[in-house]
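Below is a filled-in request sheet from our internal design queue. Each sheet records the structural input a requester submitted and the sequence that came back. We keep these sheets so that new team members can see what a complete request looks like end to end.

REQUESTER: design group, bay 2
PRIORITY: normal
MODE: inverse folding
CHAIN LENGTH: 51
BACKBONE (tokenized):
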């Protein structure tokens, strides 16, 4: 499972918990208007956790 958070200059937002990294990346990409994650102005982290 993956915990995802996005960090900007002033805030950190917990995006959610996803079963696969692909699901997490797909959701995050849709949140940032289909901009590639690596090109986003946000610092985005995918943390793998055990079920």
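RETURNED SEQUENCE:
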């Amino acid at each position: 499972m993956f915990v995802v958070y996005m960090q900007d200059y002033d805030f950190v937002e917990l995006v959610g918990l996803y079963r696969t990294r692909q699901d997490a990346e797909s959701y995050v990409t849709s949140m940032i208007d289909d901009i590639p994650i690596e090109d986003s102005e946000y610092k985005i982290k995918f943390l793998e956790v055990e079920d």
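SHEET NOTES:
- The longest helix spans residues 21-31.
- DSSP finds one helix and three strands in the chain.
FILED BY: M.R.
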